[in-house]
Amino acid sequence: MFKKIGKSLLTSLASIITLVAFTAVSPASIWILYEPDIPDALKKVS
């Protein structure tokens, strides 16, 4: 019985740690900050 509870606790803890890690990394990601240059043809249209 304790093995099942221990395994369940460790699985839950690993899931929570993974969620926290992804949440912490997401704001610092370079992909969010990347903003491509606007093409000249598009600048003329707008």
Task: Output the radius of gyration.
Answer: 22 Å
Tell me the strand percentage band.
under 5%
The low-confidence runs, each spanning 5 or more residues with pLDDT under 50, are: none
Oligomer: single chain
Q: Which structural category fits the helices and strands?
A: mainly alpha
The general outline is rod-shaped
Report the order of strands and helices: HHH
Number of domains: 1
What is the overall number of helices? 3
Largest sheet: none
**Global mean pLDDT:** 81
Distance between the termini: 67 Å
- How many β-strand stretches? 0
**Residues in helix, %:** over 70%
Could you please describe the fold and organization of this structure?
This is Cyclic lactone autoinducer peptide. The protein is mostly helical and 46 residues long. The chain has one domain (2-45). Helices cover 74% and strands 0% of the residues. It is built from 3 helices and no strands. The protein has helices spanning 2-25, 30-33, 40-45. The protein is rod-shaped, with a radius of gyration of 22 Å. The termini are far apart.
